[in-house]
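Pasting as-is:
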Amino acid sequence: MIELPSLQSDPLRRKAEKGLAEDLPSPMEPPEAFAPSNVKAVPYEKMAAPLRQLIDDHEEFLKVLTAFDSALVALKANRWRFTPEIGAALKRFFECHDGDMARHTEREEKALFPLLRERFLASGEHSPGPNPVTPVEMMEADHTRVTQAAALAFNLLGLAPRMKDPSDRDLLFEHAFGLGQEIVETMKLHIYKENTTLLPLAQALLSREDMSRIQARMSAI
């Protein structure tokens, strides 16, 4: 019998086991802890070009995530039997994750984040202490979390149908399902935080010259 790390303490896991019961807040309606406090909203048309590009990417990713989420729910409801529609939606997510999402992450981490981190430190937008943490580090942690979960979910979805023992098969699918739900929740909340907090702060803290440098770096990726 295959044993996998327990996710019983994870509310996302509990949600999955309840068949997606509506007992958790939607990431599109985040709790007050994630709501920006002193960040002034910036209209899309007032954003600098590189920031608008990132927001446009987010809109496309949300569509992919919605289809991915629906496919996971359908797969579970279909007792882990794939249909062409389910397979296509899952494939689209993993291809997007390894393609457009990976390039988007690289643009953020190599073009935007280094300069923005400098501005956060200079402006006091960081945690206290000898090793200050800025919003950039939190966004990078989300990137890492999603990348790791996506790699494991992809492998589990490929391995599960090959299992001879039905209980092992179901266990792998359940674990992949839980990881998939974690990916959706993390990414939707991540996008919300970037759109409502990180990017408006970037607009306020970065100069026109900064934006030109960021645009040039992004264009090279």
